[in-house]
């Protein structure tokens, strides 16, 4: 693990920066081709496979799983970066928990333990998987969905270097080795076609569909945060995750909060002042977050940091491509 690069390496972006294009003007006479469908792969889609995956993830293996290594600059040299497509704003409210409560005025946080409780403690969790023969970790979030079985995370937390990860599980409410709400095995992994084809950092977005556990779906057990797409930029947001690189150790839920800004350098992402490190990748960014209830509306994920700006976290814009991943995931049978 390269400690200087907590998430996706800025070096991996540098070679592709020349491919950034200015926003084009209105083109009334140009036919817009439909976006390609999300890329997806079956995971542990049989009962026997799920038993093997759940048996594999012992407490010792989870504690030893490091944050996912950042891709090297060689991979970045092949990247071309596109701009997320923006469409009609769309929102689904949180589910599975009371939405009442008084929103508290939050002090800005750049990376402190979350101690207020609420739904976010249950819906946010650690993600564990095997990639290229070794174990690794990220973060993820349970969201409201038709199948009650969708986890949102980062693209590099389901696929990197040309291969989907295996042994993929979600542990909501992870707390210093404890798994109070169980371990949930993925039956299907999905990501944007842009991340699938060339690891375009603007589309570092993914979803997992997890199998029911003891006859109950994920949202039945932990609830689900709301989701929103094609929203205005530069809003107040909260970011959550389980950073596992120093000075953190992956044992506790950490949060950041503040007003987002537009990346001024090499991506089209949101930026947020945040000290979280590797392992927080895939953790949720939320709009309209209520500190009293712990409920909000997910609108991005922890994605990457620049080497020259370690106190800033960046997350992809949830546009049409992110919405397509979510819609495909929520319409997928969990078994």
UniProtKB/TrEMBL annotation:
InterPro entries: Glutamyl_endopeptidase, Peptidase_S1_PA, Peptidase_S1_PA_chymotrypsin, TRYPSIN_HIS. Residues 1-28 form the signal peptide. SUPFAM superfamilies: Trypsin-like serine proteases. The keyword Signal applies. The keyword Signal applies. Keywords: Signal. This is Peptidase. PANTHER family: PEPTIDASE S1 DOMAIN-CONTAINING PROTEIN (PTHR15462:SF19), SERINE PROTEASE (PTHR15462). GO terms for molecular function: serine-type endopeptidase activity. Residues 31-50, 64-100 are annotated as: Disordered. GO terms for biological process: proteolysis. It comes from Nonomuraea deserti.
């Amino acid at each position: 693990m390269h400690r200087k690069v907590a998430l996706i390496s800025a070096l991996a972006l540098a070679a592709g920066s020349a491919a950034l294009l200015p926003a084009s003007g209105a083109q009334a006479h140009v036919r817009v081709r439909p976006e390609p469908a999300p890329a997806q792969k079956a995971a542990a889609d049989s009962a026997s496979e799920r038993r093997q995956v759940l048996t594999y993830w012992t407490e010792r293996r989870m504690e030893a799983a490091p944050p996912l290594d950042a891709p090297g600059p060689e991979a970045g040299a092949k990247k071309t970066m596109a701009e997320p497509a923006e469409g009609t704003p769309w929102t689904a409210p949180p589910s599975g928990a009371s939405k009442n409560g008084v929103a508290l005025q939050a002090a800005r946080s750049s990376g402190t333990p979350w101690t207020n409780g609420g739904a976010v403690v249950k819906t946010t969790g650690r993600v564990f998987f095997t990639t290229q023969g070794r174990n690794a970790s990220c973060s993820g979030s349970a969201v409201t969905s038709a199948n009650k079985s969708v986890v949102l995370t980062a693209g590099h937390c389901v696929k990197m270097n040309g291969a989907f990860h295996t042994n993929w599980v979600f542990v909501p409410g992870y707390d210093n080795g404890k798994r109070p709400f169980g371990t949930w095995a993925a039956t299907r992994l999905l990501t944007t076609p842009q991340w699938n084809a060339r690891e375009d950092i603007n589309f570092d977005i993914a979803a997992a569909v997890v199998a029911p556990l003891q006859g109950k779906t994920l949202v039945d057990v932990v609830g689900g945060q709301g989701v929103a797409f094609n929203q205005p930029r530069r809003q107040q947001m909260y970011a959550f995750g389980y950073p596992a690189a120093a000075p953190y150790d992956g044992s506790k839920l950490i949060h950041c909060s503040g007003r987002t800004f537009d990346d001024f350098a090499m991506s089209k992402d949101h930026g947020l002042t945040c000290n979280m490190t590797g392992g927080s990748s895939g953790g949720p960014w939320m709009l309209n977050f209520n500190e009293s209830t712990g409920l909000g509306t997910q609108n991005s994920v922890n994605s990457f940091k620049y080497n020259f700006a370690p106190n800033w976290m960046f997350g992809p814009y949830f546009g049409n491509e992110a919405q397509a991943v979510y819609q495909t995931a929520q319409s997928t049978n969990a078994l």
